[in-house]
Predict the structure.
Amino acid sequence: MENTPDILLIDDDPELRSLLQQYLGKQGMNVRTLPDAGELDRRLLRQRPDLLVLDVMMPGEDGLAVCRRLRGQGDDLPIIMLTARSDDIDRIVGLELGADDYLGKPFNPRELVARIHAVLRRRVRLPPGSPDPYGEVLRFGPFRLDMGARTLFHDDERITLTSGEFSLLAALAKHPRQPMSRERLIDLARGRSAETIERSIDVQVSRLRKLIEDDASAPRYIQTVWGVGYVFIPDGGGA
């Protein structure tokens, strides 16, 4: 993945598949394509990609169903979803299901390249046993956030996070007890981009709460600051 990212693109539009395969190939990526999700499981067993570009609207199993199924199996394969709808519903649902990013159609292929690189940068992990180059492990309650390995542990059990969820949790944990706006969290976690919506932060906060809070409806660690955004309380106390 370091030099030639391996990308799997699933889209039922043959012209778009061909265009993106050629364009991404010229950007130094190895791109394989499928017209639908029917062969996805066999393809993943045979040759697992570094990232999956997944169209929402497809015949058979649609993109949202594929994302839901993979995340339900504990698969943390990076996923960028493509949606042709003009509203934010599919994008929000995709994030709720665990997609790493989304892009609305029509889009400039350069934007997809930028999103792919951003997601892959966020997903880089160290090989087992490698030293942590940042020397930073953040702890809160029974959790351990390993910044070098980009991994969250509950005691000794690894918790699967998408790249966006990890980056958001890291941004919060690095600024304990500091109320931060959604815009600030977007900047810290993923960088400001034209298609990023502040609602995506709410979605990912909701997912994180379900993973780390005893009661997601009464969060101890990631608390809401009304009129501002969110604040991270490492000891689970009040802000």
